[in-house]
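Problem: given the chain below (164 residues), write out its structure.
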Amino acid sequence: MPQIAQLADTYASQVFWLLIFFGITFFVIGRGMVPKVMETVAMRDRQIADDLAAAQAARDAADEQEETWRRRENENHAKAQALIAKAKADAAASTEKKVAAAQKRLDKKLAEAEERIAEARGAAMAEVETVAADAAQDIVARLAGAKVDSKAAKAAVKEAMANG
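Solution.
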């Protein structure tokens, strides 16, 4: 078989060119391109790590600012609550003073009204006594035909009103 015999003659040359081709490929890709790709990957990893670190630092700063803001907001809220409580207390004291003054005026008016009522009652009772005494004189004069003087009629009416 001549093809097998020929194989031995061409085998060495094929192995030679195979080694040359793989050697060139190794140096071009392995020594030229792969380090550049690896450097790009490493640079990208480094950039991602730096970005993550910057993001974490920004987050920590934001958390710190938020905590400061919350603390300040709580202090302002407490101050506002104190002001509201003070305003309520002042308003209550003012209202209580006004109510006390109004109550004093009302008590004074009530006392004056009671005085007027007592005077009116006294005047009415005196008027009733006078009217009753006159009526008693008229009744006695008509029924008995006798004349009663006004002092006796007034005394009898007072006694009857006192007994009740």
